[in-house]
Amino acid sequence: METLTELGTLIKYVILGLFQGFTEPIPISSSGHLVILRELFGIEIKGLSFEILVNFGSLLAVLVIFRKDIIRLIVNGWRYLSKKEETAKADFQFILFLIIATIPTGILGLLFEDYISEKLSFPVVVGYTLLITGAALWVIRNLRGKKNDGDLTVKDALIVGAAQAVSLIPGISRSGATIVAAMLVGMKQETALRFSFLLYIPVSLGITVLKLPKIVTSPEFSALMIPNILAFLASIIASYFALKWFINIMAKGNLKYFAFYCFIVGILVIIFL
């Protein structure tokens, strides 16, 4: 009987990891889906430790997919700093805008992490915030901006950064909020997508560096080490393929389908959970 219980826990954690990984890159809120699935499975995971762990898996997938952009930005950023090469200026500015956009999330995360975890991580909240995510996606479904990487401003970065800060609330999609904000300030879809996911890296990396050592040495992690590791691995695989798929969806301009999904799931959660 105990073996069956352990097997059931393993399966549940793997499913949680797969769902988080799949929903992190696409605009339907990974944190919201974790809240829903924990409620359905009857798993109580206090705080944000599990979410941080599986988000680290998503971060690794993002790093792999955007590795060429990351290397280019680092190389050109250094070229501009050291040699003031004008051809590298746009990439250097892009890095500065990513740093600026990270600030709102860092501040609000430090101030409200406990409040969000304790007061807002409930299915009914997620139901309503998914409706908000769906409405935002619907608004920008037909937008086609003109701004490239070199056309961005400090104001654009702050607006997108504020949108990412709002996405700390479960049910508000991080990728959805940042892409919506980016397109509302006039970015092209490919620029909005790239800015959104490159912006994910410093925030996720910062949280991982600060929190992960404490998480993996905690008694709760040790007690469920294998389920946690499997969930982590599942999130890497699911994030990689989901992000590849979402890049193709963005290229075709089919964001409205994610809006429909958020509307349907949000209503179902409000009614039944």
From TrEMBL:
The keyword Transmembrane helix applies. One of its GO terms (biological process) is cell wall organization. Keywords: Antibiotic resistance, Cell membrane, Cell shape, Cell wall biogenesis/degradation, Hydrolase, Membrane, Peptidoglycan synthesis, Transmembrane, Transmembrane helix. Its EC number is 3.6.1.27. It holds the Pfam family BacA. It is found in: Cell membrane. It is a multi-pass membrane protein. It catalyses: di-trans,octa-cis-undecaprenyl diphosphate + H2O = di-trans,octa-cis-undecaprenyl phosphate + phosphate + H(+). GO terms for molecular function: undecaprenyl-diphosphatase activity. Bacitracin is thought to be involved in the inhibition of peptidoglycan synthesis by sequestering undecaprenyl diphosphate, thereby reducing the pool of lipid carrier available. This is Undecaprenyl-diphosphatase. It comes from Virgibacillus salarius.
